[in-house]
Amino acid sequence: MAEIRVIEDRAEKSRICEAVLADLKEWFEVESAVAEYIEKVGDRLFLAAVAENEPIGFISVEDINEHASEIYVMGVKRDFHRQGAGRELLALAEEELARQGKKYLLVKTLSERRPDEQYDKTRQFYKRVGFLPLCELDIWGKDNPCLLMIKNLAS
User: Fold this and answer.
1) Is residue 75 very low, low, confident or very high in pLDDT (cuts 50, 70, 90)?
2) Cα-flanking dihedrals φ and ψ of residue 13, to 5°?
3) Residue 44 gets which letter from DSSP?
4) CB 131 within 8 A of CB 151
5) Where are the beta strands (DSSP E) in 1-155?
6) Predicted model pTM
7) What angle do CA 22, 27, 31 make, to 5 degrees?
8) Confidence of residue 152 (pLDDT cuts 50, 70, 90)
9) Could you tell me the CA-to-CA distances from 59 to 47, 110, 146 in Å, in that order?
10) Cβ neighbours of 92 (radius 10 Å)
11) pLDDT tens for residues 79-110?
């Protein structure tokens, strides 16, 4: 079982983000997006899952407004999928957001309109942990339809 830690140090956030995303190339194949995640996680709430003193996953969350936050980026190394680290990271992030008075948590992922085995797994994970599809957006271009999902933190 992983230990979940709140990470405050900007450089450590970036280092963990880079290491985890490097293991998830099928999800994070756009190098410019990965570079932006690595740079910008330093300004956001950041929790890391650690096993045997090595980071195996993380979640980074950004504020939208006084009512809602959004998962900025999240990942768990492939060898640790389906072992509970993602659920633990999300649960602790949700607890912190609820303490801050947030009512909703959002996440953007690839819509099922573009078939992709990896993102099918991603959408199923979010559905299992209580997210509901809200709407589709064309913010990533016609070839990459975005599905916006939402979770009520009070439920």
Assistant:
1) very high
2) -55, -50
3) S
4) yes
5) 3-6, 45-51, 54-63, 68-76, 104-110, 132-137, 146-152
6) 0.90
7) 60
8) very high
9) 5, 18, 19
10) 16
11) 888 888 999 999 999 999 999 999 999 999 98
- Phi/psi for 121 (5° steps) reads -65, -40
Q: Is 30 left (phi over 0), alpha (psi -120 to 50) or beta?
A: beta
Q: Are the CB atoms for 89 and 129 separated by under 8 Å?
A: no
DSSP three-state, residue 48:
strand
Structure tokens at 132: 């509901």
Residues in the chain, how many? Answer: 155
Indicate the burial class of 13 (C-beta count within 10 angstroms; 0-12, 13-18, 19 or more): buried
- Residue 69, token pair as written in the block: 């936050």
Q: What is the mean pLDDT of residues 32-40?
A: 88
Cα 26 to its chain centre, rounded Å, is: 15
**Taking residues 18-29, what's their average pLDDT?**
87
Is it the case that residue 63 has pLDDT exceeding 90? yes
Question: If phi over 0 gives left and psi between -120 and 50 gives alpha, with beta otherwise, what is residue 130?
Answer: left
Structure-model confidence comparison of residues 30 and 82, the more confident one: 82
Of the candidates 66, 88, 75, the one whose C-alpha atom is nearest the C-alpha of residue 33 is 75
Which H or E run includes 119? helix 117-128
C-alpha–C-alpha distance, residues 79 and 95, integer Å:
26
